[in-house]
Write a structure and sequence with these properties.
3-stranded antiparallel sheet; D-Maltodextrin-Binding Protein, domain 2; signal; about 325 residues; 6-stranded mixed sheet
Length: about 325
């Protein structure tokens, strides 16, 4: 049945206002012989070993009249609704479906929405992607990249331009903004990588969660934090929009590249619909669109797999003792 955007939004909001235990389908216990699932929630199976949920039985496949798309939580969702509109229109044209943009307020809300069946296509941030895969049946299939197939971002650490902090070791005794527990560059990668650089988060410096990369960076500019690890792609977009004075900060560390936002579909979508969604992504032309202007240097969506491109992220999260549970996602 086709429902209006307001009705769909209401259903989503209702879903996001209640807990996992009340909104999520009850996982049925299944033995690993008939339904191997690895780190996946027991409600999903992974017969082919690709680490993502297999499609359900044909009778359980869904083919909604209205597709709901959500991008990762950002500081100003209204701006991104406009930025994504050319792409939304392209998906409509290719799939023949009505497509609506839904602005999520947190990583956990975004994962909950897909798990509950109210979110069909989504861009999940790097760190939360494994939670979306394992808790919500998200299937990553694309990243933004260049024509030659390159993609990725780095963890960068910034401090004030006139700060006496020259290296990570100088963070000892300081107040450092991390973004959120599930963020890769904003929390998990620093916890895995910084000890080799001579500083241990929470032991050598005080960790203060800002809530987002934007807030971390603006907090450094304002002097609320002594330093902050942030994602290079976010910093670049903020600078392009003149959200802070680049001369007011100084970078003291940069990591090797990580994969960027994963673009995913819900595992229970009809396979023919999935193919048309993929076609929409891989045929979209960024040139001359608001999306292309926002994501400078991005020229197309490129195909990826969760098993391959997220291996480094799973390694980092394993080093942090991360378990893919609703409680860990919400912390």
């Amino acid at each position: 049945m086709r429902y209006s955007f307001q009705q769909g939004r209401g259903l989503l909001l209702a879903t996001l206002m209640v807990s996992f235990g009340l909104t999520m389908p009850v996982a049925q216990a299944q033995d690993d012989t008939s339904c191997p699932h690895g780190d996946l929630d027991p409600m999903y199976c992974d017969q082919d070993g690709d680490l993502v949920a297999d499609p359900p039985d044909e009778s359980e496949l869904v083919n909604p009249d209205t597709l709901i798309f959500a991008y990762t939580p950002v500081e100003d969702p209204a701006i991104y609704a406009d930025i994504w509109q050319p792409f939304i229109d392209h998906i409509k044209e290719v799939t023949g479906k009505d497509v609506r943009f839904f602005a999520v307020q947190s990583n956990s809300a975004q994962v909950e929405a897909m798990r509950s069946g109210r979110l069909h296509i989504a861009g999940f941030s790097t760190g939360p992607t494994p939670f979306a895969v394992n808790l919500a049946g998200a299937v990553p299939f694309a990243l933004m990249g260049s024509d030659d197939g390159r993609f990725g971002y780095t963890l960068q650490v910034f401090t004030q331009a006139d700060s006496d902090i020259q290296s990570l070791a100088d963070l000892k005794g300081k107040r450092v903004a991390h973004t959120s527990p599930t963020s890769n560059s904003g929390n998990q990668a620093p916890r895995a990588l910084f000890p080799d650089e001579g500083v241990v988060p929470d032991e050598d410096y005080e960790v203060l969660y800002s809530g987002s990369h934007d807030q971390s960076m603006l907090g450094v500019v304002a002097g609320d934090y002594d330093a902050a690890p942030v994602a290079s792609e976010v910093v670049e977009r903020m600078a392009a929009r003149d959200l802070y004075d680049e001369d007011s900060v100084r970078m003291i560390f940069e990591s090797e590249p990580f994969p960027t936002t994963s673009y995913t579909y819900a595992h229970d979508l009809d396979p023919q619909l999935v193919e048309s969604i993929k076609e929409a992504f891989f045929s979209f032309d960024f040139a001359g669109t608001a999306l292309g202007e926002e994501f400078e240097g991005v020229e197309k969506f490129i195909p990826i797999t969760y098993k391959d491109q997220w291996q480094v992220i799973r390694t980092i999260q394993s080093a942090n003792g991360v378990r893919y549970t609703p409680d860990n996602l919400e912390e």
